[in-house]
Hints:
The structure holds 2 protein chains of 2 kinds.
Chain A: H1 13-24, E1 45-56, E2 66-75, E3 78-85, H2 97-103, E4 105-109, E5 113-119, E6 127-132, E7 141-143, H3 148-158, E8 161-163, E9 170-173, H4 179-182, H5 191-194, H6 199-204, H7 215-223, H8 228-239, H9 243-264, H10 270-273, H11 280-296, H12 301-307, H13 314-332, H14 341-346, H15 361-366, H16 377-387, H17 391-402, H18 411-433, H19 437-441, H20 444-457, H21 473-488, H22 498-509, H23 512-526, H24 535-551, H25 553-561, H26 571-575, H27 584-595, H28 603-614, H29 616-621, H30 626-635, H31 642-663
Antiparallel strand pairs in A: 1-2, 1-7, 2-3, 3-4, 5-6, 5-9, 6-7, 8-9
Helix pairs in contact in A: 7-8, 9-13, 11-13, 16-27, 18-21, 18-23, 20-21, 21-22, 21-23, 22-23, 24-25, 24-28, 24-31, 28-31
Chain B: H1 2-7, E1 8-14, H2 21-30, E2 43-52, E3 55-64, H3 74-78, E4 83-89, H4 93-97, H5 99-110, E5 120-125, H6 139-148, E6 154-156, H7 165-179
Parallel strand pairs in B: 1-3, 1-4, 4-5, 5-6
Antiparallel strand pairs in B: 2-3
Protein name (chain A): TBC1 domain family member 15
Subcellular location (chain A): Cytoplasm
Pfam families (chain A): PH_RBD, RabGAP-TBC
Amino acid sequence: xxxxxxxxxxxxxxxxxxxxxxxxxxxxxxxxxxxxxxxxxxxxxxxxxxxxxxxxxxxxxxxxxxxxxxxxxxxxxxxxxxxxxxxxxxxxxxxxxxxxxxxxxxxxxxxxxxxxxxxxxxxxxxxxxxxxxxxxxxxxxxxxxxxxxxxxxxxxxxxxxxxxxxxxxxxxxxxxxxxxxxxxxxxxxxxxxxxxxxxxxxxxxxxxxxxxxxxxxxxxxxxxxxxxxxxxxxxxxxxxxxxxxxxxxxxxxxxxxxxxxxxxxxxxxxxxxxxxxxxxxxxxxxxxxxxxxxxxxxxxxxxxxxxxxxxxxxxxxxxxxxxxxxxxxxxxxxxxxxxxxxxxxxxxxxxxxxxxxxxxxxxxxxxxxxxxxxxxxxxxxxxxxxxxxxxxxxxxxxxxxxxxxxxxxxxxxxxxxxxxxxxxxxxxxxxxxxxxxxxxxxxxxxxxxxxxxxxxxxxxxxxxxxxxxxxxxxxxxxxxxxxxxxxxxxxxxxxxxxxxxxxxxxxxxxxxxxxxxxxxxxxxxxxxxxxxxxxxxxxxxxxxxxxxxxxxxxxxxxxxxxxxxxxxxxxxxxxxxxxxxxxxxxxxxxxxxxxxxxxxxxxxxxxxxxxxxxxxxxxxxxxxxxxxxxxxxxxxxxxxxxxxxxxxxxxxxxxxxxxxxxxxxxxxxxxxxxxxxxxxxxxxxxxxx
Amino acid sequence: xxxxxxxxxxxxxxxxxxxxxxxxxxxxxxxxxxxxxxxxxxxxxxxxxxxxxxxxxxxxxxxxxxxxxxxxxxxxxxxxxxxxxxxxxxxxxxxxxxxxxxxxxxxxxxxxxxxxxxxxxxxxxxxxxxxxxxxxxxxxxxxxxxxxxxxxxxxxxxxxxxxxxxxxxxxxxxxxxxxxxxxxxxxxxxxxxxxxxxxxxxxxxx
Lengths: 689, 206
């Protein structure tokens, strides 16, 4: 067996060259430069394709893009793909070695690849998304120097690839099944991972190769003795760290800042601030609460734990640690609590802050200038994030949160907008209203769409007084708006779950046209949830799996071992943002918190993590399989206490920091689709394969 | 583990949105009907203990979202199914026309080892509506289709008043049991059909 070293390229001359090149200039136009150094590749492995300046975009900030080299390597009959980010790239100075490790693709065999989707936007760089048979996908790979066509052509030479009948931009790898099969979306079972032919590919593929922490052991155990691949793999892993430890360091660093800040400040305020609700005691008691409550929640858990030992929650350990240190700081310095709340806030808290009362009219007025502009939208978002909005004020505030109103619009402009948008709404509405029954008879799509909407509106929140009773005009309005939307966005049409979103919006806005436009704004971001190919759902569930991996690796490992990595048990949570999990009022509270996009656009995913972590003892302790877990999650509906969950989610989001953000691929809803500001610089060279 | 596995019979209910999948499941398991069910998002299941002779089985009945767009989720939910129930609304032609698609989609996604002989049961639901006056799919038409697909057992039901629901699910359970790879040398020959109404069904050949 060859001494392969396909993934650990740190001592590879070729890799070193790429580092140099990378640091010289990211945008330097070079392509196919890897071939000359193929002699440095392990014996028996041949680089059949190499492309520089292929990048991933972990965030929407161009400065955080990570460029690297994409290669296809042929060894025997197998084709592997690697993507190694450059080291020491100027623009990436902020990114740590671990950020790179998180994304590095180390020798994934094409036997584990299900499909490759090519995107060639009119503006911006072309990119591909590689989807594994496990259903997981790598983040989009952007080809700064083109070469997508060559990439696909090379794969075609060495692996079995067919073009999807459904979508000319989807290339199915190893697809020997019927054409019907090919029409299935890329949502797939992680069960496929179990059918991977050998331990080697299992250890190397399925995305976990990018991860770190406890998986080291798992990976090692699975691939033990199978080949030198796995050993190298393990070696590589040593460079990455235990997420819990890392997070502790991360948090402790921040903590030390706080402590330093505390020491630098005089102690006069200690007693005054003692009881103000934001003092150390409050935080302490919360930390207790968050650590203890999940255990107390179910008394029989204790004995269950005897049967199935539950690995400790890394974040709990962290909180314990910090809690200890907190006391220490208080006793040694006596000044921990004196920090002004606003100052402290900047230094990052690990505990979620106590919820504040909702934003009321008087306070709202202070956010507006005399013409009605929101002066400091960030301050407003933050205020709403921590307390929500008084119900009577929602009608005024939600259009901002949803993006229907601009924060710097004036009262007059909003009134004008309302009038013009009403006319526009009526125009779209007339499009379907003018369809006669004769015409409808010959318009199957319309009839079906209308039928679906008719069926759903009469079973949307009917137990809620606003929609109850026979011939309720609000139910009709719900139908009219959805039908009009299905004409306004004919491609997206109507999908179940939309009525769940619209119902509270209509209840809040109390106006047909205004509700419609708020709903349109919401669908700008969440429309992908309802896409035919379910891509938006796929990417969110994938991001969720990465966040759990980051924030609770034992739980992630548990899901992995139990074939639960598809996270379909969270499907309902994500699709309609917990609408079915909380009562009507609580749902509205949660939504306005999520819609602020304060801290993260993806707070809803942190909410998922927070709920899962609350019940991790039960899930692992009772050894739930996929079915049991799905049932358990479905039955949590109506039993989740919202406020502590929001606080947990906030804490988790802060804990995860930029690692969390980097775990979420760009374009994951509700992020807007990836667009590149330098797009016009790129001349598209790839034609259809 | 092996014995526990044998005791569980997994049944999937498929059909267009609004044909009454959730209602049928609830009527059978809880003997309740509500007209306030919400559209199913994702999937859910209920279980019911059933007894054949002296053996106890757990029937796990999966209720899924009816909109085509969510079909790709099926892969996760259909696997290991022992029987598939196809439901249509006798008052909606489209829901009947969709049966073929649901059947094929199920076979693709569940990929059972022997698709030719995988047990299906068809239910024509909502026969109570408007005293049967709004009916558009005749019993004959439905039975013809069932016959053409390898004699699929057919039942006409009303989830609302519970008509024929018990009988249909007994047949479903029996077919699911037949599909289970059984280690025992013989299958139970007789089935407790208490209260089974067969007059409006082509039924199980038992």
